[in-house]
Design brief:
Layout (H helix, E strand, L loop, with lengths): L3 H16 L5 E7 L2 E6 L3 E6 L13 E7 L2 E7 H4 L12 E8 L6 E8 L1 E7 L20 E7 L2 E6 L1 H5 L5 H4 L9
Parallel strand pairs: 2-10, 5-7
Antiparallel strand pairs: 1-2, 1-8, 3-6, 4-5, 6-7, 9-10
Length: about 180
């Protein structure tokens, strides 16, 4: 059985390959025994969990920030963001570093999200993606861009722009604007 580092390296290589091709490929990951997927073209890298620098008075799902090669990157816990029960971080817990477009679509931001484990990279044709069913107003589905089937698993495909660009996050995500202020 491969160790977590080997799996992360293998998937990072697959991400690099996928970014050079056209198509609908998704990095799949687990949160609370459910499978989700990010558009692979939004994934910058996958990192093992490491301690972050906490930011006082931040939102409850913002774990803090990391310095990634000179860029200060906010790190958010998707379990908390999705209002799922908290779980202890394990050796399979990883940070997926994503490229996110600003609310108005003019600025790219880099954000890290903590997930329980990465699963695989899967192909999903546009014709295989189903619309998210309508639920009552108490269930937030605005962050789910659709549902896809991969083998015997149902994947919830996450819209990273909607998930990570709510108005209250904008000032935190603009942290890169302050790097040149010294």
């Amino acid at each position: 059985m491969k160790n977590a580092e080997a799996v992360v390296e293998e998937i990072n290589e697959r991400i690099d390959n996928a970014q050079q091709q056209d198509g609908d490929e998704y990095l799949t990951f687990r949160l609370a025994n459910e499978e989700y997927g990010f558009d692979i073209l939004r994934v910058q890298e996958i990192r093992g969990w490491e301690k972050v620098t906490r930011i006082p008075n931040s939102l409850n799902y913002v774990k803090g920030v990391l310095n990634l090669r000179g860029a200060i990157v906010p790190i958010m816990d998707l379990r908390i963001r999705f209002d799922l029960p908290q779980a202890e971080y394990t050796p399979t817990t990883v940070v997926v570093v994503l490229s996110v477009m600003s609310v108005n679509g003019t600025k790219e931001r880099i954000v890290g999200v903590v997930v329980d484990a990465i699963s695989d990279v899967v192909n999903a044709k546009t014709s295989d993606i189903q619309s998210t069913p309508n639920f009552d107003a108490s269930i937030e589905i605005e962050y789910i861009q659709g549902l896809a089937t991969a083998g015997d698993k149902m994947l919830m495909l996450v819209d990273v722009d909607k998930l990570l660009n709510i108005e209250e996050d904008v000032s935190l995500l603009d942290s890169e604007d302050h790097e040149d202020d010294d």
